[in-house]
From TrEMBL:
<feature type="transmembrane region" description="Helical">
    <location>
        <begin position="103"/>
        <end position="124"/>
    </location>
</feature>
<feature type="transmembrane region" description="Helical">
    <location>
        <begin position="12"/>
        <end position="32"/>
    </location>
</feature>
<feature type="transmembrane region" description="Helical">
    <location>
        <begin position="211"/>
        <end position="235"/>
    </location>
</feature>
<keyword id="KW-0472">Membrane</keyword>
<keyword id="KW-1133">Transmembrane helix</keyword>
<feature type="transmembrane region" description="Helical">
    <location>
        <begin position="165"/>
        <end position="191"/>
    </location>
</feature>
<feature type="transmembrane region" description="Helical">
    <location>
        <begin position="52"/>
        <end position="76"/>
    </location>
</feature>
<protein>
    <recommendedName>
        <fullName>ABC-2 family transporter protein</fullName>
    </recommendedName>
</protein>
<keyword id="KW-0812">Transmembrane</keyword>
<feature type="transmembrane region" description="Helical">
    <location>
        <begin position="136"/>
        <end position="158"/>
    </location>
</feature>
Amino acid sequence: MDMKILKYELKRIIFSKIFVITFIIALFFSVIDLYTEIIQGVSGTAPFSKWSYCKFLCDINTIMLLILMLTCTGLFSRNEQRVREITSCTSLPQKKYLTTKNLALLISYLIIAMCCIFISVIFYKTTFNFTNFENFLLPILIILLPTFAFVFGTSMFLGSKKQIFLYIWIPIVLILSLVNFNNAPFIDIFAKGYASYMPTILPVDGFGEPVFILSSHFIISRIIFTLIGIMLYLASFKKL
């Protein structure tokens, strides 16, 4: 891992106009979503239930991944191709160079995710005096990680074939994020339908809240999405 290239790529991504604008939009959207949608609870659940927080994560994940994919397009631009031609003449391996740039993309995604989650922490603390945020660790992992792996891996694979494929993939992901598939986890990439549908059919606990249960089908679907994303990501390096 070349730390100089990593620092340079992080600065280039974070201080780019596209990232700054979309980052502000993501934060603004998080606030709006929390105070208009999540504050009412999801499918009759409390605003601070795990189901409601899953819905929040599904909502913000859409815009975070759109930012990621837009940033990915830069990896396959003509200017980037020229840079690779130059670096190919140096001692820096192409796979190592691209891996470093991908790590910068991952860190930029994590920065946005952490900031949006931090906004939710402030929201729950100030609005409901809720501080049991350790309850949200599982929703964060099960909602964000598989979708990130799948979308990022697919984006890298398509972009490595042809940049236009990546531009076609972006609106497809947006459309998929807007559709609620209810109890169909194997096609519900963003899990938005699952987070809204399951609380309506599950038994309630002593507090009248639907029990937070992840079905075996849902867990398997998250594993499959993650594995597919990893395999497509690795396949994107074959042409190097």
